């Protein structure tokens, strides 16, 4: 199979803000007009009163009409602020300058101020007679984490917005320089992905990680201000707010992620054991200990999050049938537009709509030569009215083919819920949003590639199958612990369990615990800030969504395959051209976040629980083969 890269999706749980969200422009109802409500506590007894259009109303049971008017007004006012923020963010991401950074910070500050005030007011509606739709909107407001909740103090709020824009700008402009010669992240990633020279890999890895040193004091300040804002709306810290956005308690959600990790950990450990042995053969046991941690710079990815680029070093059956999709794309003279149109054609084959004409006019598909941009792939609905776009610096290769499908999965989700009220314009939970395009990409099977003319023949023997599953596992299975530990680190930072002087020590302790990897050299505190070298940390994008998505995509894939009438092994299924599967997918997409995620899950899969069983089923041939290869080895670390 092909492999999706983790791509940026700049929306925090349950409310569209910075980018990647959609919404239809609507007339503002009369009930929404007037000045925004504000919460006051004149009596000093903690019982808030609200001044709404010049009328003070104390919130109490029986306030159904007031609650309904409140959420309707919020929907209209939020739309205007969110569009302004989204436009500013698009401009900043596609042209990083001091001016665009300031404009984005200013727009986000206004949005932060509105959300902080609005969330506080939402908590005052507690009446039992509130209708289910209004109650759902109030709940989503209360667990909104994007933008991060701002402190009430205007100077602190302004500083929080400035920090967010500045950190993302530093990351986007980051380069590793020797004298006048500088390499940006793309060039350094090419080295990490292709070189087999230990010292060259080390130089590229350390060069990129140096860019994060500047971020450390900014991030520490950011954490303090974001936590202050979270506490003002009733949470212990920002991490607790993040964990509250999954229709379960924060504590239950943390247990749920551990449960899912327990399901998949045995398969990861088997893959790690096999790969470690192959890398020891390549670089020597003095550099890759037979029973220890793998050095992070040897796994073909700047963050060791996915290992597909080292496939030639670990290929199960060299010379057996394998797919050179990158070569096929280049032979067929694909360019950036043609690659995206290929992705669109899969979605339309199952009955989904074509992308709007504005998508092709407004997307950024190539890296501009005249300005600095954030190349990290992301999907957008800038104007919240089906203004779909993607932002990528596309390379014509196998990885970006699947990244295109991943991003279009976001776009199609926006497209099918953009007519809902703004507060419902999000995925059932954020893992759903990340899983849609990846589930579609699982249908990019060898049979599909042959059907569209990219390859001439489908590998038919078991050796070819194991080779293909190894390629896929180096992306999907290798990623799982990384996907989980990013937020585990941040939850500990936000809660104070990890103090600022322990940022790097705690980072590498978690990477050792979950991933079984180590830094290639000493990385002491406070000299380094290696977490900041990963985009989602300075950009403040929660990451557990990607862990959930890697599991959910297989659960979704299995359900879609069943709808399509597939029989046979799960890894052979492609829903290309199967409109029955598309109908089921559209029904789930159209719900947005209007229902708790278990209901959306049931609409597509028939069950209300997340489960990794389909992932394990998919990789059953490879797991059996790994068991054979690892016999006699001491796995683990």
From TrEMBL:
Signal peptide start and end residues: 1-19
Keyword Mitochondrion among UniProt keywords: no
InterPro entries referenced in this protein's UniProt entry, alphabetically: Peptidase_M2
Highest taxon listed in the record's lineage: Bacteria
Disordered as annotated region, ranges: 24-57
Basic and acidic residues bias (residue ranges): 38-57
Keywords for the protein's UniProt record, in alphabetical order: Disulfide bond, Glycoprotein, Signal
Listed Low complexity bias regions: 24-34
Protein name, as recorded: M2 family metallopeptidase
Species: Nannocystis bainbridge
Lineage, broadest ranks: Bacteria, Pseudomonadati, Myxococcota, Polyangia, Nannocystales
């Amino acid at each position: 199979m092909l492999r999706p890269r983790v791509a940026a999706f700049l929306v925090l749980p349950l409310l569209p803000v910075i980018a990647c969200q959609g919404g239809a422009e609507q007339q503002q109802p009369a009930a929404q007009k007037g000045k925004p409500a504000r919460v006051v506590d004149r009596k000093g007894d903690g019982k808030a009163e609200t001044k709404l259009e010049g009328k003070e109303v104390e919130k109490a049971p029986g306030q159904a009409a007031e609650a309904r008017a409140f959420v309707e007004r919020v929907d209209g006012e939020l739309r205007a602020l969110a569009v302004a923020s989204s436009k500013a963010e698009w401009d900043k991401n596609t042209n990083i300058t001091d001016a665009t950074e300031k404009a984005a910070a200013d727009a986000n500050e206004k949005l932060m101020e509105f959300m902080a005030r609005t969330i506080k007011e939402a908590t005052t509606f507690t009446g039992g007679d509130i209708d289910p739709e209004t109650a759902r909107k109030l709940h989503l407001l209360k667990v909104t984490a994007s933008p991060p909740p701002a402190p009430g103090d205007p100077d602190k709020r302004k500083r929080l917005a400035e920090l967010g824009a500045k950190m993302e700008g530093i990351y986007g402009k980051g380069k590793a320089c020797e004298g006048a010669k500088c390499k940006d992240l793309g060039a350094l990633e090419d080295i990490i992905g292709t070189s087999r020279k230990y010292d060259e890999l080390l130089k590229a890895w350390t060069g990129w990680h140096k860019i994060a040193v500047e971020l450390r004091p900014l991030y520490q300040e950011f954490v303090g201000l974001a936590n202050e804002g979270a506490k003002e709306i009733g949470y212990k810290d920002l991490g607790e707010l993040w964990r509250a956005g999954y229709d379960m308690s924060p504590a239950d959600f943390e247990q749920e992620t551990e449960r899912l990790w327990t399901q998949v950990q045995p398969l990861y450990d088997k893959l790690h054991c096999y790969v470690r042995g192959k890398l020891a053969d390549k670089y020597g046991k003095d550099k890759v200990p037979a029973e220890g941690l793998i050095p992070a710079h040897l796994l073909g990815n700047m963050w060791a999050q996915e290992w597909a680029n080292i496939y030639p070093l670990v290929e199960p059956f060299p010379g057996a049938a394998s797919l050179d999709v990158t070569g096929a794309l280049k032979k067929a003279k694909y360019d950036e537009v043609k690659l995206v149109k290929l992705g669109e054609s899969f979605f339309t084959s199952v009955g989904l709509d074509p992308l709007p004409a504005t998508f092709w006019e407004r997307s950024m598909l190539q890296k501009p030569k005249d300005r600095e941009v954030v190349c990290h792939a992301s999907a957008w609905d800038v104007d919240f009215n089906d203004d779909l776009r993607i932002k990528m610096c596309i390379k014509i290769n196998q990885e970006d083919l699947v990244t295109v499908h991943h991003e279009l999965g976001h776009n199609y989700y926006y497209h099918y819920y953009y007519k809902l009220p703004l507060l419902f314009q999000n995925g059932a939970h954020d893992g759903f949003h990340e899983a849609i395009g990846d589930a579609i990409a699982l249908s990019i099977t060898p049979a599909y590639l042959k059907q569209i003319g990219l390859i001439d023949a489908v590998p038919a023997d078991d050796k070819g199958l194991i080779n293909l599953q190894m390629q896929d596992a180096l992306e999907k299975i290798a990623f799982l612990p990384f996907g989980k530990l990013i937020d585990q680190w941040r939850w500990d930072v936000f809660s104070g369990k990890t103090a600022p002087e322990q940022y790097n020590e705690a980072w590498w302790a978690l990477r050792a615990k979950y991933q079984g990897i180590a830094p290639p050299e000493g990385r002491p505190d406070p000299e380094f800030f290696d977490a900041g070298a990963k985009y989602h940390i300075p950009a403040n994008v929660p990451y557990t969504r990607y862990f959930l998505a890697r599991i959910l995509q297989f659960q979704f894939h299995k359900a879609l395959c069943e709808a399509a009438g597939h029989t046979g092994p799960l890894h052979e299924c492609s829903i290309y051209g199967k409109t029955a599967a598309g109908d089921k997918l559209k029904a789930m997409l159209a719900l947005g976040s209007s229902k708790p995620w278990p209901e959306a899950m049931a609409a597509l899969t028939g069950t209300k629980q997340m489960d990794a069983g389909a992932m394990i089923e998919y990789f059953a041939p490879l797991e059996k083969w790994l068991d054979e290869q690892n016999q006699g080895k001491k796995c683990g670390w």
